[in-house]
Amino acid sequence: MKKIVYIEDDPDIATVIEMALGDIYQLMVLMDAHEIAEKISHFMPDLILIDNYIGLKKAADVIKEIKQADKLKDVPFILCSGSSDIHTLAQEMSANAYLEKPFELADLYTIIKKVFDGHIS
């Protein structure tokens, strides 16, 4: 079973994602960015889904911290955001893909599958 980390500070969204993905993937939901690289490195995910803001931290800063850990540097990630310039933000962070909020669960499943299948790099 593939492992996914979902980093989201909104408890309602986190709960929906947990229900949507929890039976398909081994899922870790983190609602803050405190010692995030350490928490994630113990889980060793195959994919990271991250909201653009985790509390006061931007996803770009959180991803930079995560990618500094050698064993996490190649883990793909998908940026999730309601920002109107999500495409630009995703490019600037070198995200493997992005998903604009609000999104349909079918779109979430599709983008995850595409990243896992290597159709999006």
Question: How is this structure best described in words?
Answer:
The protein is of the alpha/beta class. It has a single domain, classed as Response regulator (Rossmann fold). It contains five helices and seven strands; from the N terminus they run βαβαβββαβαβα. The chain has helices at 11-21, 36-43, 59-67, 86-93, 105-117, and strands at residues 3-7, 26-30, 47-51, 53-54, 57-58, 77-81, 97-100. The strands form two sheets. It has a five-stranded parallel sheet with strand order 2-1-3-6-7, sandwiched between helices. α4 (86-93) links the parallel β6 and β7. It is globular and about 30 Å long. It starts with a strand and ends with a helix.
Précis, in short:
The protein has 121 residues and is an alpha/beta fold. It has helices at residues 11-21, 36-43, 59-67, 86-93, 105-117; strands at 3-7, 26-30, 47-51, 53-54, 57-58, 77-81, 97-100. The chain is built from five helices and seven strands, in the order βαβαβββαβαβα.
